Prior knowledge:
Blueprint: E1 4-10, E2 13-19, H1 25-32, E3 51-54, E4 57-60, E5 73-75, H2 77-80, H3 84-95, H4 105-118, H5 124-130, H6 142-157
Parallel strand pairs: 1-5
Antiparallel strand pairs: 1-2, 3-4, 3-5
Amino acid sequence: MKNMLLRFTLNGKPMEGTTQPNKRMLDVLRGDLSLTGTKEGCAVGECGACTVILNGEPVASCLVAAGQMQGAEVLTIEGMSETLIGSVLQDCFVEGDAVQCGFCTPGFIMTAYALLLKNPHPTREEIREAVAGNICRCTGYIPIVNAIEQAGIRILEE
């Protein structure tokens, strides 16, 4: 397949390079750009470990073709940490013991980031619904929901 010129914004910075249009976004981020915070868990969009924000919406980057990145804005865990919401979320996850092995954490934080952008003070039910596509095998989810709820409270206070 012929390579394409790909132009998009990544973590607030313009990017340009060539890639195959059907290559997965996850492979572009991890392999081509060395942004390894986005994880590959299942490769079929079921676990949420590869969640990034594409044009304001959380997506499973293992299911998105590189061609869909053309002209798009992409936010990864690496760029999210530079934002107020991202910084508060990371602090709340650590303080609330919502991190065990850590493999799923970037995906949960990106999903929570998208939720808090749209709804800075979600209910526990809205949080559970938002993270339903993310799998964690260590925490039992309660600390994750607590951390996201606490982040929403802190963000409203700032």
